[in-house]
Amino acid sequence: MSDKKRVAIVTGASRGIGKAAIAALDARGVTAIGMSRNLPDDARNRRVDVADEASIRRAFEGVITDFGRIDILVNCAAVATTAEPLGLNADDWEAVLRPNLIGTYLCCKHAIPVMKQHGFGRVINVGSIAGRSFSKTGSIAYTASKYGVIGITRQLAAQFGRDGITVNCVAPSQTKTEMLQEIATPAQLEAIAAANPTGRLGEPRDVASAIVFLASDDASYINGAVLDINGGVL
Fold first, then answer.
1. Hey, what CATH topology would domain 3-229 get?
2. pTM of this prediction?
3. Residue 142 is a catalytic residue
C-alpha cells in the first residue's frame, strides 16, 4: 500500500513534535488525523483527552468510520512537570502517568486490533532522553513515565511483530517546543544547548523526520527499537 492510502493518528498534535509529525506525514501523502485536547472536531482533527479511555475509544472509532482503517499511530501527547525529587504526592504522579504512560498504552490498545485486521501497522511512541537517563528539566514523575513508554514499546513489539505491526520509540533530547519552554528557564535552555555536541537544541522537525521513517516500509525490520535523537549526548 502506498503512503497516500495510509491513515495515521497523531496524538498531541496541536503543537510541538506532534504538530511537526502531522506536517511531515502529510508531506508524504499520508492521511494524518491530529488528536489533542486543544483541537476542534473536524475533517482532519479530533478533540481527545488521552487520559480518558472513553474519549480515546470514541475518537478512534470515528476515524475507523470515516476512513476505514488505522495504519500508523504516533503517541506524542504528554505533559511535563517540575518538582523537587521528593516533592510529589500521589495526585502529582497521577497527573503525569495518566496521559504520558497510561494514555500511550490505551491508544495502542484501541489501534493495534484495527491494524491486525489489515496485516500492517506502525506504532511510534515518543519517549525522551529522560527515559534513557534522567531529566535535566522535568520531574521524577516525568522521567518515570518515559521509562515506562520504552517498556510498553518493547513489550508490544515482541507481541505483534508477526502481525505485520512494528512498535518503536523515539527518544529526543530537549527539543524547542512550547512544553519545554513552559518548564525550563531561558538560562537552562542556553546551558543545555551549549553542552550538546551540536551546540543547539533539537527542532520538532528533527524528531518528525525520524517518525516518518519509522512509519515507512523502509523501516519494516526495525521493531522494539529506541531511536535516540539527541545530537550526540551520551
1. Rossmann fold (3.40.50)
2. 0.95
3. yes
